[in-house]
Design brief:
The complex is a heterodimer of chains A (203) and B (254).
Chain A (H helix, E strand, L loop, with lengths): L9 H4 L12 H9 L3 H23 L1 H18 L9 H24 L20 H12 L2 H12 L4 H8 L3 H19 L11
Helix pairs in contact in A: 2-3, 3-4, 3-5, 3-7, 4-5, 5-8, 7-9, 8-9
Chain B lengths: L3 H4 L3 H5 L5 H13 L1 H18 L9 H19 L2 H15 L6 H24 L13 H12 L9 H34 L4 H20 L3 H27 L5
The chains are: A mainly alpha (203), B mainly alpha (254).
């Protein structure tokens, strides 16, 4: 038996659980939007604009993100009338976003015939100076992942959603969601290679 | 005995705190002993934290204006679409939501009803009193030009500075007002076509309401109140067109 001289780093010793915030006043907001109240529609837009645009940006890339986000919000506002509340509003909006982004990539793929085995490269978002070198590399590596992996990584790791929420959004089983996340992270580690845990990226 | 082969697939769940006590403890024990797995776990933890700390991406300020334009265009298209097509769309949405699959007998009934609707519409078309059905894609020149210009306009950089956002937000009320104006022009054209068929009393009531709303818009002291009145005008025009549409579809006269 080996000695226990090697301590487990703090980050590995105390893994974190995820808690997602629930929106309490969704019903009121939805009702006001159904009545066509401009203020409510604007409020809903501001509440979700970063999440929708961020997802679209990271899945389809910067050049098409605005088009996809527009399409998502138009579907949201026009679909609210028939939204029955079977899932949370946020789950529904995320689902519309992922579906719109993946359909957009599929259409674009048919037009340009890019990528093999579903791998579609998208340009990394512009990185501001305050971002670390690792963040820039992560964004670039994200752009090289297959679109499905990109979706699960952004939902779970960037947006911080639980497996239950991701499964509801992607309409798959929780087990599938977990295994896809595992594969996506493994692929990311391959893409990032020596840049991870090498000490060169730490400030 | 916990081996690398058993630990590696569990690392993701372990790092996310999803492994129950004894399994988590076994993984932790293995990590103490195995430098290779410890390195993989450290990399994955760093990747996970790196992903979590990615900066949110701000949408360009033009996104909201684009959404409003598309919603307005869709509403104009709704107003132009004949009543039976709107009803068919509602029915399709309902059937999809209810996951209803029609039986052969129901399909037969539906075909008969559809044939009856087509026959009635054809007969009405021959009488010459049905307004020409405008296809959804064909919009009047002002709105279509506006949309084409919006589509081809150079887009601002995705990450804009705080100053750009402030300037753009300041110009937003003006853009919204202009976009409402275009919708009003389109709807007025449709409403005028309907108005020609009404009796004098209805025409006078319609004109009075339009004049009242236009007065409110003209005398509004703030852009917000002017826009509120513009929205009332749009809703009034839409309801006038829809009422007329329904009246026509039911074969009645005003």
């Amino acid at each position: 038996m080996t000695d226990l001289a090697e301590p487990v780093p703090a980050a590995l010793a105390e893994p974190r659980t995820r808690v997602s915030a629930a929106l309490s006043d969704d019903a009121q907001l939805i009702a006001a939007c159904r009545r066509g109240e401009a203020r409510a529609m604007e409020m809903l837009y501001h509440q979700y604009k970063r999440r929708v645009f961020g997802m679209a940006h990271r899945i389809v890339g910067g050049s098409d993100a605005e088009e996809v986000a527009q399409e998502v919000f138009v579907r949201v506002f026009r679909g609210l009338a028939s939204f029955r509340g079977d899932s949370a509003l946020s789950t529904w909006i995320y689902r519309l976003t992922v579906n719109a982004a993946l359909s957009h990539l599929a259409r674009r793929g048919r037009r340009h015939e890019v990528g093999d085995d579903g791998l579609t490269e998208v340009p990394a978002p512009p990185v501001t100076e305050r971002d670390s070198a690792l963040a820039a590399r992560i964004e670039t590596a994200l752009g090289q992942l297959p679109a499905g992996y990109r979706a699960i990584l952004v939902l779970h790791d960037v947006e911080g959603l639980s497996h239950e929420e991701c499964a509801a959004i992607l309409e798959c089983r929780i087990g599938t969601c977990k295994s896809q996340l595992h594969k996506a992270r493994a692929r990311m580690r391959e893409l990032l290679g020596a840049h991870l845990a090498s000490g060169t990226t730490k400030p | 005995m916990t081996t690398c082969d058993k630990v590696r697939p569990r690392l993701t769940a372990y790092l996310d705190g999803e492994l129950a006590d004894d399994r988590g403890s076994a993984v932790r024990g293995h990590l103490r002993e195995c430098p290779a797995c410890r390195r993989v776990a450290s990399e994955e933890a760093e990747l996970r934290d790196g992903l979590r700390l990615l900066e949110p991406v701000d949408p360009p300020a033009s996104l909201w204006a684009g959404i409003q334009s598309r919603l307005a265009a869709a509403e104009v298209a709704d107003a132009r679409r004949p009543v039976w097509r709107r009803a068919a769309a509602r029915w399709t949405r309902w059937a999809r939501a209810a996951r209803w699959t029609p039986t052969m007998r129901q399909l037969g009934g539906a075909s008969f009803a559809a044939a009856a609707v087509v026959a009635v519409l054809t007969w009405r078309g021959q009488r010459g009193d049905e307004p020409p059905a405008a296809p959804v894609a064909v919009l009047g020149p002002p709105l279509s030009e506006h949309l084409a210009a919006a589509a081809t306009a150079p887009r601002p950089a995705t990450l804009v500075s705080a100053d750009d956002v402030t300037a753009d937000l300041a110009a937003e009320p003006e853009r919204t007002t202009a976009s409402y104006d275009r919708v009003v022009v389109e709807l007025m054209k449709l409403a005028q076509a309907s108005r020609a068929r009404w009796n004098d009393g209805d025409r006078a009531a319609f004109d009075a309401r339009i004049a009242g709303l236009r007065g409110t818009i003209a005398h509004a002291d703030q852009p917000r109140s002017a826009q509120r009145a513009q929205r009332s005008l749009i809703r009034f025009l839409q309801s006038a067109i829809v009422r007329d549409d329904m009246l026509l579809a039911s074969g009645g006269t005003r």
